[in-house]
Specification:
It is a single chain. By secondary structure, the protein is mostly helical. The chain has a domain of 54 residues. It is 68% helix and 0% strand. It contains 3 helices and no strands. Helix 1 crosses helix 2 and helix 1 runs antiparallel to helix 3.
Length: 104
């Protein structure tokens, strides 16, 4: 085989390896954001549980729907993990009259 025949094959293999690396990086990034979401949810749930009025109110609300002795940090971590998969990009565009989003 000549070099002219081998060069496209090697180029294709290099492109395939780069593509696999990018896909693996993307999958790792998705789970990284989900884990960060779980951490933020757990911290938020813990802070909510130690507040004098809101913590008890939320625990009583969960008791009303059948969740007895709710651990707010665990619930926050669960919801944060699930929400970590649903990140979106927010775009801010100027309105048609040339003013900003707030009409200023």
């Amino acid at each position: 085989m000549s070099m002219k025949m081998i060069a496209p094959i090697v180029g294709g293999l290099i492109a395939a390896v780069i593509g696999v690396i990018i896909v693996i990086f993307g999958i790792v990034a998705i789970f990284f954001f989900a884990i960060i979401g779980a951490l933020v949810g757990a911290v938020t749930g813990f802070i909510l549980s130690i507040t004098p009025f809101l913590g008890g109110l939320v625990v009583e609300g969960f008791a009303q729907v059948g969740v007895g002795n709710a651990n707010l940090a665990a619930i926050g971590a669960m919801l944060g993990f699930i929400a970590g998969f649903f990140k979106s990009v927010v775009k801010h565009e100027k309105s048609s009259d040339g003013k900003g989003d707030w009409g200023c």
